[in-house]
């Protein structure tokens, strides 16, 4: 493809400003207080797709937040790429830990991003990475170099489990028909170590509510005589891991894919410094399942983490109370072959079974999704690998990610096509954390790499 | 004493209205947002003591909230009773569980209080019970029947550990010189089963802060590879009790007073129905230290309860985060001979020792106090017993309470006098809980019983 670099340098500041405007809208799907902002973001995405050259763009209503669909079909005989992304973002809290307001984007240099990074909630996950595709599309249409058909499906509920996307996909097989699905919602190892994510973990997210006495009690008059819901909840949660940090839910590991020593050796080749990993997090030691390395623990092994816990008096000062209720949000990351609905059921059954007499337990399944693995011998992967080689001058490393994009497994099931995960963010970009950011270099590099995937995929498809 | 009943019935509605006005002021000492209300409450108490006939009343400043002091010395040769109470209240949350606003008192009948109960935060603990003494004083002075000297010391920091009362007491031995200390901040078994509290538990209250990674992390990218502060905190807290619900802190039980079988038999005589106890709390079963009855567990045995826990995402919806920090407020109820400062140190040492590598733990001691036992052969106890016999027509049962009034032990140490705990509330009055209330009958009965204590104590002191 010609003129990619010249086009990017020419329009660089506009590319940045458009993204900054998008990041200013607090599209927090988890909090209904931001409903209008989420809807406004969908409209903004729609307009951007029209400007980028899509011939047909529409806001598709769902039971929840709408899906923005756009397409440009140039020739029925050419392959079709379906681009997926999301315009919603994680809640920004703890807000006090942000150095600048999460929805007032600023560009500042960092160690990893000497050319500057855009600091804002959603900068990397996923507004920034989604918008790379919009700008790549603009380049290809503006320079008449779009080599194949393209479809965009940008949703607004990824951060809350894509509850309504499944229905939309099931009901729109023809509309979404494609030869490969392209997603940028993952990361790469480093700016000089390009990598492509070939595996994702599944997810099961539940919320538990434990009820003891029917009212808050004075811990002096009742302490020691009735089950304290917080004490009990800590015991129940603690018992979910054994002394080797293995999860104790019966049958939890039954279907876990066990990698061969050869595969584990291959994985171990990815550059990794435990020292700098620990230094970056200010921790003295790592912690996890016995018998596995850090990179294995966060990619090929399933996990169980409490994402939130609360109960009793959490205000200033002291209150000697035994609360009536205690709560926790718990998520399990699953690996290929584990079925998230089965695991959710196993969790529910087990957690209810370990509740002592004197308390009532409610387990509310929140959402979930299956894990996924991309075959590296597929045309899609080969095209992506060539694109990186051309853009970065290096062959990318295939890498398993610990994250989850539940809908990837759904896409394969419903649309019968493979997904390629071309992520340009870095682990240090603090997605889901305060001070989330996305490198300016990475943003522009993504815009420059995506059209090369289009080119190679079209060529390899012939 | 003459005309007690007639005086009470004559002034009943005023007695109730004055208390209701006092209850309208949200004197929440734990929350600095209510500072002005706490101070206003002190002023109101001061005025009420003046009107009740104290010859000298003053607001004594402290490093925290002031202590209201009042006295009436009629004859240096007569005994002196020191009345202690507190004008601060517990925070009202969870506010949504109140049937009526906590600081808009209403009088409604209940099963246990057919004549009506005053519903408001502080109705029983301790504004209502403290104000009984003010009105008893009014009766005795108005009818020229005050048989001895009286001093009042009403503080505003009881619900946050009486941090500054100790200094005040230490610096005012002469001012506070007395022959017996009288407190109504406990309960009795039932309106037809009067009892006097002869034992109190001590308290050690700590707050723990656990820090893992230096920022919140994405639970997909880091889950399983780094210590999750919430998972770790639940494991650490869970380990504080063994399978018999005994506390595992080394040395915790070393100084615990072990009651003889005879004493335990005596205690077991107090009327108690496990069925109605469970029914009142809507629990299927009680829960506690193996080998002890419910009444023993909440009175003569030490306990460890989590009063509050929080960490991670606790808002609406889901957030897949590994938080940087997790917190808990933990209190231990202690029994006679356990030293609260020693136990606090033992907790700190043990809790820090069980923290795994990869997390940092901070234990912040909050406040505490020693347990206490009143000898039933003392003049004070005998006088109280006679007063109840005269007012209720029944000899009161001596009873150990699970609650703590840390300053009682301090009083004995500093002022060398015994404390008599004449409580008129019921366990069902929901102190420290939503819908706290105090029976109108109990309020008036208290006002009628207190002067009889003055009479008998003066007589027995001759």
TrEMBL record, chains A, B:
Protein's UniProt keywords contain Metal-binding:
yes
Q: Name one GO biological process term.
A: proteolysis
Classification via InterPro entries: Bact_exopeptidase_dim_dom (IPR036264), Cyt/Met_Dipeptidase (IPR051458), Peptidase_M20 (IPR002933), Peptidase_M20_dimer (IPR011650)
MF terms in GO: metal ion binding; peptidase activity
Is Protease found in the keyword set? yes
Q: Which UniProt keywords apply?
A: Hydrolase, Metal-binding, Protease
Q: What Pfam families does its record include?
A: M20_dimer, Peptidase_M20
Q: Which segments constitute the Peptidase M20 dimerisation domain? A: 199-358
Q: What is this protein called?
A: Peptidase M20 dimerisation domain-containing protein
Q: Which organism is it from?
A: Algibacter mikhailovii
